[in-house]
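Field reference: sequence -> structure
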Amino acid sequence: MALSKLHLAAVASLALFALEAQAQACSPYNGTVCASVLAPNATYATLAPVPAVEAALSQNFTSPLATTLQTLNPTCAKTILASTCHQAFLTCGTTQVYLPCKSSCDAVVGACQSTFSSAGMLQMLPNCSSSDYGTTNCISLQGNLLAVDVPATSPPSTPSAGTTLPICPPPLIADPNPSSNNSNCMSGCCLPCPKERFFYQPGLIDKLELGFKVIFLISFVCFLLVAVSTFSTRRGRAFPRIFTGFFSACGAAMMLVTFGTYPSYSTMQCASDGISDATQANNIVCLATGIVFVYMLWTLIFWVMAIIFAMHMMIVWGVEGRVLVPYSKYFHIVAWIVPVAMTVAVVLKNELRAYPGNICLPGNSLAIPLFYGPQVIIAGLCVLLHLGTAIKILWVGIKASRSSSESWLRKQIRLQWRSGMLVVVFSISYIGFILTNVVYLMPMLSLTAQEPWIQKWVLCLIQNSPNGVQTCLPLVVDHVPPIIPLATWLVVTLAIGVWVALVMLPGQPLFKDQSKNSVSDISQK
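Structure field:
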């Protein structure tokens, strides 16, 4: 595409040439570069010596950039060749040389505008209103002398019947609908969806996605086991232990979204055209799984908040569980109804879209204020409350241990460590969720074929076809998330069900409703 620099250089130099051409010798063209354009029985004049002009043209029209243009837009490449040749070799008449017609410049713009626009290089197109082009007694793109220039017609913007689509280097595919202006396409070639798999070692993303599916399923089973073990016993259904059952049931439902990735991740990540990224508007699986995940994640956060609050009231202030029972309806209102409002807001704003190698989540301009921001604030407040509880336990425990035969601190740790570990497990997993989605994956949502580094990558693919994916990887490694920390945090996040089961299933129940062991009682002794 930068081949047009040659075209512009010719325009700049030929302004001077038009003034001096009478002094230049006219001779037949005997070269090779413009042989398909210039007539064998005509004579032509050049500003520089013919061998130098021929060498410059040959170097430019056989360069990798020229090859790229020929592949992406053959019509544009052919038009530039004809126009440039008629500028480099001006046709000689009996008493004068003839400038190229303005229509030849218009033809270049018409044939190349879409390609140069997609590359962000419209400024490289020639200025057809300059004095380097004639409108009378000029040479047409076909090499004919025209008394009056005939305006050029722009080529159709969409392929007509029988038109051959451009040949695209693998893994790129031909754009089946050029009029759609798909952001994943450039000059008739498109990045297949999901495109992120081509930015890493071949086959690596497929293996990781299979591993993530397995972890999803294991987490689902673990959450389900904790929920069943809680709800199946009378002690587990008692307040506030039942909170852990609701927490685990929500976690199991959240993990159900993994079934939306069958038979492959593209089922949820791609639109039906195989090129566009999935959104709630073009992929029903993305919409359904996104709604389930967003709602269940909100409920998970609120049930953690309920657990932390109950722990704080019982341990620090000595409030017995039966005193909190009448207020349990408010916990349910917050944990079940508020997430409905938050999820509806996300859907109404059309925010759901597929994350690279992940699931459908809010990912447009309102993702932070509607989803991640409020969650981080609530989760942060919960962690601070839990941290305050732990600090007070530690402080009072140290004071009590001085006068107790058995360390009160050790006793509290033995009684309450599971509840504390549940909060720690959730906090670490949620940090992993924020890191993977907000820090690593969200920036990739805005990737398009117009990114400069992607254009360089495409050029490399053309030059090294058909093995360009492996060869061109060094061009993309600095622009995509590092795979090791990304995969590590995804495993930490997706395995939350495993961590919860390891804490909850063996041994003691979550809560010890012993008000006499509260901090308030101990501190009064």
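Note: Residues 1-23, 154-165, 508-525 have pLDDT under 50 and may be disordered.
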